[in-house]
Specification:
Elements lengths: L18 E3 L55 E9 L12 E6 L12 H4 L11 E3 L1 H13 L5 E4 L5 H13 L6 E5 L5 H4 L8 E4 L6 H8 L4 H15 L4 E2 L5 E10 L5 H15 L4 E5 L20 H14 L4 E4 L18
Parallel strand pairs: 3-5, 5-6, 6-7, 7-9, 9-10, 10-11
Antiparallel strand pairs: 1-11, 2-3, 2-4, 8-9
Helix pairs in contact: 2-3, 7-8
The protein binds iron/sulfur cluster.
Length: 349
């Protein structure tokens, strides 16, 4: 079993010492993609935005009338940036980067959010900042990213825009979008809503943030997070049951579950890793993140005001290796920095 740091240098970018493979999956991908999933062309379901129940918050907000629920956005589609992003797992960035579209607002609202500028968690902000666009313009942004050489379309925090993302994806597929689509989510999702994406999403990239109910409530005000997120991940794995990588080691289909290790929460992290490996084994990839960065809102928090120590992270990686995890990613040092957060200036939209 290989340890962190045992991988050949080319896997570690010279400037950004980011993700590396936990085991040797990059060397010899076991699957070669031959066809994409069948393109879904069914009528888009209608959503009642006068009584929004899109996500487990079940706010019942009348978004159609301009009101907002927990996610802080009305019915309009608001996004903050579309561009090529290098800071993702190596199987998602290809040669030019992942085509990331950052959506404004969020249904999680973690107190330590790195994207607090656009998530809507900043106190006093009326609406999260971003550019209002139509579903047609979103669809065109997808196609522009493909023209720029994006390895995939990476939908970042998409949950509360499902009603617009579905038609935008179907239009883009019809107009020539052929790269994989990645659904990058907190996993605080309804499995029933995810079923609507069956056949449209190629790679699911959910977080699994907390095992503990107390942590989920304290840090994200998200009751029943673990049972909700684990049911959502089960639906994602049902849709994408095996990892599929091309000859260059790029993921064309599959599920990568991310876990951001938080300072002082080693036991919770171990429970997450144990759960994922016992339930899914090597059906999924597990990505263990060390990039936790204290944001201004938690500078005085007794636990969240510091970064993860190298020792804490190494012990967690050792635990994953001892479990037998082979399909995984770990991060090399130097990733806890605000400088890795993109500029949210509406570019690319
Ligand atoms: S999508 Fe937003 S408004 Fe709708 S239930 Fe979720 S948090 Fe509430």
């Amino acid at each position: 079993m290989c340890r962190k740091g045992a991988w050949p240098e080319p896997l570690i970018p010279a400037v950004w010492r980011g993700f590396i493979y936990l085991a040797g999956a990059s060397a010899e991908p076991s699957w070669i993609l031959e066809t994409y999933q069948t393109i879904k062309m069914t009528p888009t379901p209608t959503f009642d935005l006068t009584n929004c129940m899109l996500c487990p918050r079940n706010c019942g907000a009348n978004r159609a009338a301009g009101h907002v629920g927990y996610c802080r956005v009305p019915a309009q589609l608001i996004a903050a940036r579309a561009g090529l992003l290098q800071y993702e797992e190596p199987c998602l960035i290809g040669s030019k980067g992942s085509g990331a579209v950052f959506f404004s607002g969020c249904n999680m609202g973690c107190i330590f959010c790195q994207n607090h500028e656009i998530s809507g968690t900043d106190p006093g902000a009326a609406l999260p900042p971003g550019k209002e666009i139509t579903t047609q313009e979103l669809s065109q942004a997808f196609l522009r990213l493909q023209e720029q050489g994006a390895a995939n379309i990476n939908l970042v925090t998409p949950t509360h825009y499902l009603h617009q993302i579905l038609p935008a994806l179907e239009t883009a597929r019809r107009d020539g979008l052929s790269i994989p689509v990645v659904y990058n989510t907190s996993a605080y999702e309804k499995a029933s809503m995810l079923r609507l994406l069956d056949g449209l999403i190629d790679v699911y990239l959910p977080d699994l943030k907390y095992y503990s109910e107390a942590l989920a409530v304290e840090y994200s005000r998200a009751p029943h997070y673990f049972e909700t997120a684990s049911a959502a991940i089960a639906e994602m794995v049902r849709q994408c049951p095996e990892p599929v990588l091309d000859a260059d080691g790029q993921m064309k289909r599959g599920v990568i579950v991310r876990h951001l290790a938080l300072p002082g929460q080693a036991e919770d992290s171990r429970r997450i890793l144990r759960y994922l490996y016992e339930v899914y084994g090597d059906q999924i990839y597990i990505s263990i993140l060390n990039q936790y960065t204290p944001m201004p809102a938690v500078k005085k928090h007794p636990l969240l005001s510091r970064t993860l120590t190298e020792e804490e992270y190494d012990q967690l990686v050792d635990y994953a290796l001892a479990l037998g995890v082979e399909n995984g990613f770990i991060q090399e040092g130097g990733t806890a920095s605000e400088s890795f957060i993109p500029v949210f200036d509406g570019s690319g939209l």
